[in-house]
Amino acid sequence: MLKQLCLLTMGLLAAVRSDAQAPYDTSARIASLLQKMTLQEKVAMIHASSPFTTGGVPRLSIPELTMSDGPHGVRPEFGRDWTLDGNVADSGTYLPTGVCLAATWNPKLGYAFGRVLGREAAYRGKNVILGPGVNIIRTPLNGRNFEYQSEDPFLAGRMAVGYIKGVQDQGISACVKHFAANNQETRRFTINVEMSERALREIYLPAFKASIQEGGVHTVMAAYNKFRGQWCSQNNYLLNQILKKEWGFKGLVMSDWDAVHSTMQPLWNGLDVEMGTDLRMLPNPNYGRFFMADTVLSLVRKGQYPEYLLNEKVSRILYVMMRNGMLDGRVPRKAYNTPDHQQAALSIAAEGIVLLKNENNFLPLQGRRIRHIAVIGVNADRKQSMGGGSSQVKAFYEVTPLEGLRRLAGDSIRITYARGYNIARGAGADPVLIAEAVEAARRADVVVYVGGSTHGYNYAVWEDNAYDAEATDKPDMFLPFGQDELLQAVLKANPKTAVVLMSGGALDMRKWLAQTPAVLQSWYAGMEGGNALAGILFGRINPSGKLPMTFPVKLEDHGAHALGQYPGDSVNVYYQDDIYVGYRYYDTYKVMPQFAFGHGLSYTSFAYSDLRISRSGRKVRVQFTVKNTGRRAGAEVAQLYVSPDGPALPRPMQELKGFDKVLLQPGEQRMLSLELNEDAFRYFDDRSNHWRLDPGNYTIRVGSSSRDLRLGGKIKM
Ligand code: BGC
To answer: In the predicted model, what is the mean pLDDT of the chain?
Structure first.
């Protein structure tokens, strides 16, 4: 029996061993460094040496690898005991959060975003910035949706590739996270995610794959959760088989902070660097006691872990150091709070804020006789940069919506402010604050309401009233703190009220949406967010953001909740919604969203014409003309969706496969040309475990949102 067990173990190890022999760099330089290193020096490199560094080898001039969150600014500094070090100069540019970036649908801004991060990370002496986060937005309740990009893998991938190149062109490594299937914060440390191979391949992996194969990202962070029974940080299938072997990833895989649970599995299954285990050792962290520290020394010495696998891990770390110039003393491109960083923050906010509703051109406010604006709502006067969890930033400055409005209004418009509600645990509608807000609304010509969700304030205090924040999901999709009641009262007092929602995603608007003429989704729009918002409200900026996710009428309508499980039982969550995530569910199951994927209004209008679809070999070219038919310059995001006419397996009604953003002057028109390759038509056939392209007809539609498609045609593949 014992012999059989031994044979079985050896067989398993052999299988794992062949998986681990994936491509990694074995260049002469790495080989020669490895040869000079002692076992202790190698082991020191594969685990943390402080909260955000791994061990270096000073004797061989191998520096520590220094990291920082991520993803939308360089995080303030921590001491070894994980308390914020208030005594150092550690401010940064606070960029709009990931979801606002994705709402720009502008990969060039992805690059600009990454460039700012890369330069400021360099200024602060970091080598790796822990972003972008590309997990799919599966449910509106996920507390970290604000950090992620989209419910759509194609859009998430495009934005991530721009971001990664922007960071890495500055000589800093990016880190795509959290690999994989980390789509909820509820029980994130323990939950086991189960899904079909098809959902994994079509929905949850493509943004990671694009980050690696197109973005060339140097590092990957393995997620907290389990996937098919194995922790992601020690998951042979995800790390060895898919990431390293199938996709040919050459960089290093680090664990999320405190996501490692044992020694042998991560050692064998593809983890290269263990981070954050000190969090469970506070107040006296001992880095030698990490799972992948002193134990590894004795395992190698006793012949229970082969040194060549340890060498592979070290080679990957050295490869990253080589790629970002650390071994050559190359100085990365540094800069600090420059006007062009501020401009990038402003442009991303300006293009990311989404105009959801604008009845009878209520907005912009400009050009009307407005003497008095009442600004109502806590988020108008609240700084958000230190909220959200690990993504917090000590912003150089942060222009709130109230400040932004005051700046633009100048002396001719009076602005009064009423907070309207309180952010506090369990706080409901407050009659005194409502009465005050109603009074302010009644006296004003128009009202700008700035409310929505909340983001917490300080990572050091894990506030339990933080809804868009790490380690917690939202309890429901309703506006918290009695805001429905407040809004109803304000709208009754003054129907000329524009509603601005700050949140990581959808909120239930049923109680007041019909009564308000205008709604803006402003996400968490960074340190220039207040200027961007005021610019849009006053018409200095023409909005061009589009939703990167579907906004449901109510939570129960959403695919993850209607078809799948959330948050699962105490052990597992089954993604029975399968490939029907976001608009793929709404369109296929014919459910009306509140606001569709890709929706976003402009102060001008666009016309689409002259669709031409042609094929050359396996490539399809789609050309069409977009014309600005209004009186203001504006940018349009033209979106292309593909639908199979007679799919062999059930498939989503349509899928986004291309988009382009174009700025047009009044009357100007431009021909856009999008190229599709075979990937745009393929699906993952889990009967044969292969991507497949069914020969036949495909319908291609282009237009302004997933529910506002203006042109259509067919192509035979
Ligand atoms: C988060 C990561 C972050 C890490 C380091 C974790 O709790 O999940 O996104 O990069 O902490 O702060």
So the answer is: 94
